[in-house]
């Protein structure tokens, strides 16, 4: 998982104000890109191809033309459910 801090096997810490950009591809899979903060002007912390199945932490969801943006509002963890399915849960 690129530069995200590990929270255990198949788990990575997300910053409190992380932005998760989800691009939905025609094949049904997604490109999930994690930024530490929307205001920070730096490269993404992680990119993964898979599906963001669910977000179980305080967040805002904004649809875009190509997918959606998840703006996290609390510390959370990105968990791998299997090779290409992920959920976000409260930390």
In whole angstroms, how far apart are the ends?
Answer: 18 Å
Assembly status: single chain
Number of domains: 1
State the secondary-structure class: mainly beta
Q: Indicate the overall shape.
A: globular
* Tally of DSSP β-strands: 9
Elements, N to C (H/E): EEEEEEEEE
**Beta-strand level of the residues, as a percent range?**
over 45%
User: How many strands, what sense, and barrel or not for the largest sheet?
Assistant: 9 strands, mixed
Helix content: under 10%
Strand ordering within the main sheet: 1-2-8-9-5-4-3-7-6
Radius of gyration over all CA atoms, rounded: 12 Å
Low-confidence stretches: none
Mean pLDDT: 93
Count of DSSP-assigned helices: 0
Question: Would you kindly provide a written description of the structure presented here, covering whatever features stand out?
Answer:
With 91 residues, this protein is mainly β. The protein has one domain (6-90). It has strands spanning 6-8, 11-14, 19-24, 30-35, 46-56, 59-63, 67-72, 76-82, 85-90. A 9-stranded mixed sheet has the order 1-2-8-9-5-4-3-7-6, with no helix packed on it. The chain starts with 5 loop residues before the first strand and ends with a strand.
Which structural traits does this protein have?
0% helix, 59% strand, 91 residues, mainly beta, globular, 9-stranded mixed β-sheet
Summarize the structure.
The protein is mostly beta strands and 91 residues long. It has strands at 6-8, 11-14, 19-24, 30-35, 46-56, 59-63, 67-72, 76-82, 85-90. 0% of the residues lie in helices and 59% in strands.
């Amino acid at each position: 998982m690129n530069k995200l801090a590990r929270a255990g096997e198949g788990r990575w810490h997300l910053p409190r104000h992380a932005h998760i950009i989800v691009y939905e591809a025609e094949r049904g899979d997604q490109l999930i890109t994690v930024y530490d903060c929307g205001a920070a002007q730096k490269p993404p912390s992680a990119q993964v191809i898979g599906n963001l199945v669910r977000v179980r932490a305080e967040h805002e969801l904004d649809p875009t033309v190509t997918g959606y943006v998840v703006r996290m509002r609390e510390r959370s963890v990105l968990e791998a459910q299997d090779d290409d399915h992920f959920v976000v849960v409260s930390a």
